[in-house]
Amino acid sequence: MLITDIKRVIEQVSRDKGIAVETLAKTLEEALKSAARKKFGNQVEIEAHYSAETGEIEVFQFKEVVETVTNPDAQISLEEGRELDSECEVGDSLGTKMDASTFGRIAAQSAKQVIIQKMKDAEKEAVYSSFIDRKGEIINGIVQRIDRGDIIVNIGQTEAVLPQREQIPKETYRRGDRIRANIMKVLSDSRGPQVVLSRTHPDFLINLFKTEVPEISEGIVTVQGAAREAGSRAKIAVGSSDFDIDPVGACVGMKGSRVQNVVQELRGEKIDIIPWHVDAAKFVCNALAPAEISRVIIDEENGSMEVIVPDEFLSVAIGKRGQNVRLASKLTGWHLDVQSESIYSQAMKEGYDSLMGVLGVSIGLADNLYEKGFFSAEELSNATVEDLMQIKGIDDEEKAKELIENARTVVESAAYKKKNLQAEKVAEKAKETSKEEAAADEISEKPQKEAEKSAAEEESSEESEELPDKIVEVKKETLGDVKVDDSGEGLLDIPNESE
Fold first, then answer.
1. For the domain with range 134-198, which CATH number is right: 1.10.10.10, 3.40.50.620, 3.20.20.140, 2.40.50.140?
2. Cys-Cys link to 272, which of 152, 235, 394, 455 (CB 3.0-4.6 A)?
């Protein structure tokens, strides 16, 4: 079948949809096979071929050469076969060219459905392939709609979703707004590829600096890591391969122009640019800036550091709600325990005193233990004999074992005292709680008593008001007739009882 426009149509669709020409050609071949089977049945062996050079699509029906034909749709006699190919033998498969125009309307409709479905699948695969390699990059898009807090973004070939949890707090978008985000995931789904975006991931901050700082894209300045609490504060560690270039200054830019562009994109998020250092302790000190660090005690086995700061810098090192030390811990990868000098000195003094309380430990031996890193009786109790044998003043193995045993006794005694003290505190607290409850009950009963008292007073007052009236009535009944003198002097003439 020769269709003059088929080649041009395939090339046009390939450009518009981003689908390979080979994929479209294979789709057409599958569609013609489907149409032929719709017309002649599934037992017919059909093959289709598309020529990219000429734009011709040919459909062939293959039949097996047999001596006696039992299935005309799949077999051909030897005589008929030799008319087509004089050298054919029994058992060969001969292909005859079919006229696709005889397939009919139903077969054409079936071919159309196959083409549409294959086109959709090919388009989904093309979109997935184009975005899977861009994972971790920044992409620009336009807000299409907002669905239950999730922002649907039009990114050209498809739609991406910015989940609510990946949005910077307190930022709002409306339909038609331009938005920048980081491609986090590209998921293959039956409904099509799903691109998941993020504006809260540390990689988004790193990519923003890459776009603003040419030295980073050129490889002169390297980003060693980043930690964020989106919408509030972030820390980014940078280093330089060129000693003449200051990595922090390169990221800040002239009058802070570069870092300000990043801050505006992140809706005012504060950014600390930290100089990276190969020494982990120095790197931690830089990450906790602007706090001054007095000393750092490293525990490599547990991956932690004890950071001692002056008392006046304790709040600065910890930050608001622990934010500064939390971000520094994420950035450096070390668990950080920040303490003030006064608390540290007190703890060290208590530890030294506990060492002095171990039987067999003199002042000189305590100083030697202290220098070797045994700061308390508890640490001494966890030591090994081999470690103690290397300390000056411990000559033999028996003495080392004795010191360890004595240290464990001191630790157990201290734990027992601490347990008793806690029990006493719990008892005192329970006693105070019972007193408070009794006082509260008394306070709650007081209004009731006052109400009862006021009710009793009201009843007595009502009785006192009724009593004078009764007395007057009784007097009127007993006195009888009362005469008043005309002189008005108030003389009373009371008649005799005999009268």
1. 2.40.50.140
2. 235
pLDDT confidence tier of residue 122, bands split at 50, 70 and 90:
confident
Could you tell me how many residues make up the chain? 499
Report whether 358 contacts 377 (CB < 8 A). Answer: yes
* pLDDT per residue as tens digits for the range 376-398: 777 777 777 777 777 777 777 77
Q: Give pLDDT tens digits for 4-48.
A: 466 777 777 777 766 777 777 777 777 777 777 776 766 677 777
**Architecture of domain 277-350 in CATH?**
2-Layer Sandwich (3.30)
Reported as a single tens digit per residue, the pLDDT across 151-183 is 999 988 788 999 999 999 888 899 999 999 999
Of the two residues 326 and 27, the one the predictor is more confident about is 326
- Here the contacts of 24-31 (C-beta below 8 Å, separation 24 or greater) are 24/119, 24/122, 25/50, 25/52, 27/114, 27/115, 27/118, 27/119, 27/122, 28/57, 28/115, 29/57, 30/114, 30/118, 31/111, 31/112, 31/114, 31/115, 31/118
Which CATH code fits 357-434? 1.10.150.20
Say what the pLDDT of residue 489 is: 44
Which of 3.50.40.10, 3.30.70.260, 1.10.357.10, 3.30.1480.10 is the CATH number of 6-128?
3.30.1480.10
More confident residue, 303 or 90: 303
Three-state secondary structure of the chain:
CECCCHHHHHHHHHHHHCCCHHHHHHHHHHHHHHHHHHHHCCCCEEEEEECCCCCEEEEEEEEEEECCCCCCCCEEEHHHHHHHCCCCCCCCEEEEECCHHHCCHHHHHHHHHHHHHHHHHHHHHHHHHHHHCCCCCEEEEEEEEEECCEEEEECCCCEEEECHHHCCCCCCCCCCCEEEEEEEEEECCCCCCEEEEECCCHHHHHHHHHHHCHHHHHCCEEEEEEEEECCCEEEEEEEECCCCCCHHHHHHCHHHHHHHHHHHHCCCCEEEEEECCCCHHHHHHHHCCCCCCCEEEEECCCCEEEEEECHHHHHHHHCHHHHHHHHHHHHHCCEEEEEEHHHHHHHHHHHHHHHHCCCCCCHHHHHHHHHCCCCCHHHHHCCCHHHHHCCCCCCCHHHHHHHHHHHHHHHHHHHHHHHHHHHHHHHHHHHHHHHHHHHHHHHHHHHHHHHHHHHHHHHHHHHHHHHHHHHHHHHHHHHCCCEECCCCCCCEECCCCCC
What is the per-residue pLDDT across 208-233, written as a single tens digit (0 to 9) for each?
A: 999 999 999 888 999 999 999 998 99
